[in-house]
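I hope you will forgive my troubling you with a question about protein structure. The matter concerns a single protein, recorded as an amino acid sequence and a row of backbone structure tokens. Please examine both parts with care and let me know of anything in them that strikes you as inconsistent. Thank you for your consideration; the sequence and its tokens are set out here:
***
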Amino acid sequence: MVLRIAAAPPFPGLRRFPEGRGFKQWTGDDSKALMKVYLPAIVGYVPPQMVRSIAAFIEFCYLVRQSVIDEDNLVAIEGALAKFHHERVIFEHEGVRPDGFSLPRQHSMVHYRHLIQEFGAPNGLCSSITESKHIKAVKEPWR
């Protein structure tokens, strides 16, 4: 699979990963760029339902990242989320998450519609903001 990621052809706006996914440090920008080449790289290596689950998750991520979200977008967000929840059971069946899902960031996805209606588009808000604040407040002073 790493070779498939590395083999992504050059294309405007598409970041290449010539070394595959072997990073010493990983950033949010790296994750966003990898999302664009990940699905074709995993096809044939994992069950089709797993590919559909990840595709629905990526679709959800792209939809909520828009700067303007209207009612049609909210319906699409709900649809992507429903498909993700429907398809993700494959991770339980295949033993990846045998005890089910209790992941706070995945749980927070169910609240996006209401929060977008209350406060507007998240505009790239990252749920790991507390992690970066923790690094700045706790880890950096010790370096």
The longest helix spans residues 48-64. Residues 4 and 41 are 5 Å apart (CA to CA). The helical segments are 2-6, 28-42, 48-64, 71-87, 89-93, 104-108, 112-119, 129-139.
